[in-house]
Write a structure and sequence with these properties.
Largest sheet: none
Number of domains: 1
Structural class: mainly alpha
Helix content: over 70%
Shape: globular
Amino acid sequence: MAAWRYDSYEAHRQKNDPDDYISLMVVSVFFENMGLLLRRKFAPITLLDDLLSGPILEIRPKVKPVWDGLRKEHNQPSWAEWGEFFHDAMAERMARLHRSEGR
């Protein structure tokens, strides 16, 4: 998935690679679980930062157009919401840390 270059859901569908779909589901479910642990306060953002800040910040932007398309196509706006939540929280944390380093 790190090598994905889909700029739209249509590009992803056009390739129609079953392995890409499996990868999307497996990785997304993992990040969904991490996001839910963060949301429910079972895992602090500092721990998730140490474990997964790089992967979530790299992968989520690449799968975003695919998930946006799947959400729209299936009328399921909450699909992959906790992975998105996790990414957004981590991106916000990184921005905050970089701002504080610049002072």
